[in-house]
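As a warm-up, study this chain.
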Amino acid sequence: MTWQLHRPWPDGRTLLVLARLPNLPTVWSNCVAAWLLSDGGEAARLLWAGAGASFLYLAAAFLNDFFDQDFDRQHRRDRPIPAGRATSISVLRLGVAWLVIGIAILLLFAHANLVLTLLLVAGIGVYNAIHKATSLSPLLIGACRFLLYLVAGSTATAGLSGFAIWCGLTMAAYVAGLG
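Now compare it with the structure written out below.
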């Protein structure tokens, strides 16, 4: 990985490309489903869970570009880092910032389970670090969706239900099957 030090922050259009926003509603629908399947409760917790999960999704998207920059230089030169529209360090900094904000929101406002939240963050990190090097990538992204279900379900007033866990496993199998 080479570190580009010119042009410190990406412009608005580049931020949108890095964010991969068209997939964000799937994160929200997973949060709503897991929360409802765990008997819901306080609507504010669901809104905070969606916000926290959105920041984790943004972190994953930005970190994906950071970790894939060498691959992208060879195969996807139009991506922001190889195209010179964003620097490696700015993408990394923003990815880490989104990660910290997401964790804080989930733990402080959505009252998500700490262990499940940290497992999801670890899953995001592992996926981004090794997905290009393994054929198990679909299983890793499926595991992240499963952990998202668990985190969102844990924000329900009664906590995570067994039914939400089973539905999360089904979602994980579906996502892994798409890969």
